[in-house]
Amino acid sequence: MLGKLTRWLRMLGHDVEYSKSLDDDQLIARAKEEGRVLLTRDLKLYQRAISRGTDTFLVEGKTEDEKLAELAKRFSLKLEIDVATSYCPKCNTRIELVSKEEVAEHVPKTTYAYYNEFWKCPKCGQIYWQGAHWKRIETTLRKARETLENSDLRSV
Ligand SMILES: [Zn+2]
Q1: How many A from CA of 94 to the centre of ligand 1?
Q2: Can you give the pTM of this predicted structure?
Q3: CA atoms of 28 and 83, how far apart (whole Å)
């Protein structure tokens, strides 16, 4: 249910596992085993995790920026992307800065001409650059920061 949020958190530099195939008991056991916080929108799963002493957080926000703001508040996350610390949104592996030459064959010509910084996932091979979509990413993060600031005001 939180696939999109998972990709956001990875971009923000967090090691986040995601599973559609595990059932509730397996998810709780896995989170506990690996010392992870279980993020869920499912109140029953959340309550069950608490009753078993597993760290868990109930994500209630509707939009991505609301969800990110909630998590930032609870876990003191920084709502800014530093690509040097990003994990691959697809496979949760730290991405690496690569030389322009290295990606020449793998990105569109116009992209190659226009951008100078490229990152590559050593595991799945996905190549990243701060292309046109980056504006949307920045907009969502800015909204999330605003939402966070407003929620701080309300709680005073
Ligand atoms: Zn990857």
Answers
A1: 8
A2: 0.93
A3: 30
